[in-house]
Design goal:
This protein is an all-alpha fold. The protein folds into two domains: about 160 residues; about 90 residues, no CATH class. The chain has seven helices and no strands. It starts with a helix and ends with a helix. The relative contact order is 0.07.
């Protein structure tokens, strides 16, 4: 095997190793996808759609690189096969004409050089594309991790209350329950201020309202405008409906 053939064989081996590296990168990407799959399911539709688009683009890049590496490796093998055929032809013609042999050999040397130059150029181009794809992939993964971490912190800040806040809510619930249930008095606007309470504890007003509802407190914005007699009728009707419902439940159990 000539030095030229050895060089081309090494180039073919290099492209084969590049192909293996790309395939391993695809496997690693699949592994990462499986590891973060539970987190993906927790995302909003918009975030999940953006991530799936990013994932598809990354797969497309790796697919193009894989095809390119396979094509370049095939080209190397084809050149080697072509060289072998040319050598056999030259060997057959060598006995007949040394000059013809020298002429063909010179032509082949020129073809070898062109092939090597082309292969080196393609290899450099593949290296640039591969490095660029890895950088893009790394950047996108870092962006995704940053977005996920930021949203987790935001959700935690919006929906988690400390023990002090929970205890204050319980006290407020007990106070309001005493006024409504025992004294039969309506809840007035000045008895509860969700916005002020939410601002004090750094949470959203919706969170405060939900916790109040869960605690059994019904906030009636305009209750102060309802007179006592009308309020008593409302409470009585609600109590009668509750008794009827209890009776129905008892009958259904029997």
């Amino acid at each position: 095997m000539t030095s030229t053939e050895k060089l081309i064989e090494e180039l073919a081996k290099s492209f084969s190793e590049s192909l293996t590296l790309i395939q391993n990168s695809k496997k690693q990407l699949d592994k990462i996808q499986n590891e973060i799959s539970p987190e993906i399911k927790k995302m909003s539709d918009e975030s999940r759609s953006r991530f799936e688009m990013f994932e598809k683009k990354t797969q497309d890049i790796l697919q193009i690189m894989e095809q390119g590496a396979a094509k370049f490796e095939h080209s190397c093998r084809t050149v080697l096969e072509s060289i072998a055929l040319h050598k056999k032809d030259l060997d057959n013609k060598y006995d007949a004409s040394f000059d013809t042999l020298a002429k063909y050999e010179k032509q082949l040397d020129s073809h070898y050089k062109s092939a090597i130059d082309a292969l080196i150029k393609h290899e450099e181009e593949l290296d640039r594309k591969y490095e660029s794809a890895i950088q893009i992939l790394t950047k996108r993964i870092d962006e995704f991790n940053h977005i996920t971490a930021s949203r987790n912190e935001q959700n935690k800040a919006n929906f988690q209350l400390d023990d002090k806040a929970i205890n204050e809510l319980r006290d407020l619930r007990n106070k309001l329950a005493h006024n409504v249930v025992e004294k039969k008095q309506p809840i007035k606007n000045d008895q509860i201020k969700p916005k002020d309470w939410a601002s004090e504890h750094g949470v959203k007003v919706d969170v405060v309202m939900k916790l109040l509802r869960d605690a059994g407190v019904v906030v009636r914005t305009h209750m102060s405008k309802v007179d006592a007699s009308e309020y008593a009728k409302i409470e009585k009707a609600a109590e009668e409906e509750k008794l009827k419902q209890d009776a129905r439940n008892k009958n259904s159990q029997n």
